[in-house]
Amino acid sequence: MRFQQHLDDAMAAATPLLGRGRVADYIPALAAVDAEAFGMAIATVDGEVCEVGDAGRAFSIQSISKLFSLVLTLALGGDAIWERVGREPSGSPFNSLVQLETENGIPRNPFINAGAIVVTDRLHSLTGDAGTAVADFLRAETGNTLLDTDPAVAVSEAGHGHRNSALAHFLASYGNLENPVATVLSNYYAHCAIAASCRDLALAGRFLARHGVLADGSRLLTRSEAKRVNAVLLTCGTYDAAGQFAYRVGLPGKSGVGGGILTIVPGHGALCVWSPGLDAAGNSVAGVAALDAFTTSTGLSVF
Ligand code: DON
């Protein structure tokens, strides 16, 4: 399929929504972004990259990094992580504390903050440096050697991280962290604060469209593991809006409060969109509209 026209049309459909929603402002470094920015890129399984708008502009990937920490943890440590984190949608905001107490310190899924903190902890034990492991993976898949953590964002996240600290201490009180809280959080912030573009993220997510096979032809995940990761993305990747996202877009996807959304079209490619204005659940308003237009015009979805 030729994608350029579909990307142009998706951007046109989203343009009236640019500037709508709220830009994440819990740290100054995120609030400073251009609210009307928009980019979109697809990296296909056969090596093509098509893009539109600000697809080459780096933004803070935030929770999209949780996808990469999970796949590395599965690749290096296997299914043991599922004893410490569930695979059910939470129906709660991404930074909610409420379910953790009634569910004995086992987060509902790896994409809410509590679950991602547990995954980061495991990845840190497996690699010795979870933040660097995620950045190294992204550099390898994209070939973008400049891709890295934005230290200013990471530092401000730590300075405004009371809720994540509370989650991490709560997890530790249930024995669900292997490393000290401060170590786990600094690695969690390091991967959330990575700056990357739509093009980078589409290239980095493409292995999931290739059923687990990386850019160099080696395999990160088995076909079955890739299927399962896509399933968790579909049900949990956009938090308490996962139902609405599946309804409108029909693809597995992971959003971040930087305004990016990375989606997977299994067998076809990885598609990333970015626009900073967020809806109440923390998903990009124009980004969801563009993905909706793209899957409608191409007919590509998992349904
Ligand atoms: O931990 C946080 O709150 C941020 N570093 C990441 C949150 C995020 O991107 C949630 N996604 N929509």
* Poorly predicted ranges: none
Helix content: 40-55%
Trace the largest sheet across and list its strands. Answer: 2-1-8-7-6
Question: What is the residue-mean pLDDT, rounded to a whole number?
Answer: 96
Q: What fraction of residues sit in β-strands?
A: 5-15%
CATH class: Alpha Beta
Provide the CATH topology.
Beta-lactamase
Q: Which CATH architecture?
A: 3-Layer(aba) Sandwich
Which term fits the overall shape? globular
Name the CATH homologous superfamily: DD-peptidase/beta-lactamase superfamily
The topology string of helices and strands comes to: HHEEEHHHHEHHHEHHHEEEH
Characterize the biggest β-sheet. Answer: 5 strands, antiparallel
What is the strand tally? 8
**List of distinct ligands in this structure:** 6-diazenyl-5-OXO-L-norleucine
Give the number of helices. 13
Structural class: alpha+beta
Rounded to the nearest angstrom, the distance between the terminal CA atoms is 18 Å
Total individual domains: 1
User: What's the alpha carbon Rg, rounded to whole Å?
Assistant: 17 Å
